[in-house]
Design brief:
The protein is mostly helical. It has a domain of about 80 residues: lambda repressor-like DNA-binding domains (434 Repressor (Amino-terminal Domain), Orthogonal Bundle). Helices cover about 60% and strands about 5% of the residues. The protein has a two-stranded antiparallel ribbon with strand order 1-2. Helix 2 crosses helix 6 and helix 3 crosses helix 5. The C terminus is likely disordered. This is HTH cro/C1-type domain-containing protein. GO terms for molecular function: DNA binding. It comes from Kocuria palustris PEL.
């Protein structure tokens, strides 16, 4: 509160506390990150929820809840979904890990981002060799 242009110390502390709270990053919820990556992979492939749920032998509603981060998928279910998407579980988890690292401000991908791979195709394959 300010009176005649003077801000009380108490109010300054509350204002700075609110700014600090707003600057805090949101906590990472693994099931949400996994869901976002699974949905992104499915959409990049141009596939529908119905197609993938049928291939993965999981109900359409449950797959939708997994993609929206509302359900925690078991490792068996993730393997089934990844098989339906024709992507290794390790590749999906690597994409999840890269996404989480980016959210945490520690982004240093060790894979070619999907956007670059789509834009430049296989010309990226094999260009970086591990020593």
């Amino acid at each position: 509160m300010s009176v005649n242009g003077i801000i009380r110390w108490k109010d300054m502390d509350q204002t700075s506390a609110r700014k600090t709270e707003a600057a805090e990053p949101r906590p990472v919820v693994l099931r949400q990150e996994i869901g976002e990556v699974l949905r992104s992979i499915r959409q990049r492939q141009g596939r529908t929820l119905r197609e993938v749920s049928h291939s993965a032998r999981v109900s359409l509603g449950y797959l939708s809840e997994v993609e929206r981060g509302q359900k925690e998928a078991s490792s068996e279910l993730l393997a089934s979904i990844c098989a339906a998407l024709d992507i290794p579980v390790s590749a999906m988890l690597r994409e999840v890990a890269d996404h989480i690292a980016e959210l945490e401000g520690n982004f240093a991908p060790d894979t070619v981002p999907a956007e670059l791979h789509e834009e430049f195709g296989s010309s990226f394959a094999g260009t970086v060799q591990a020593s």
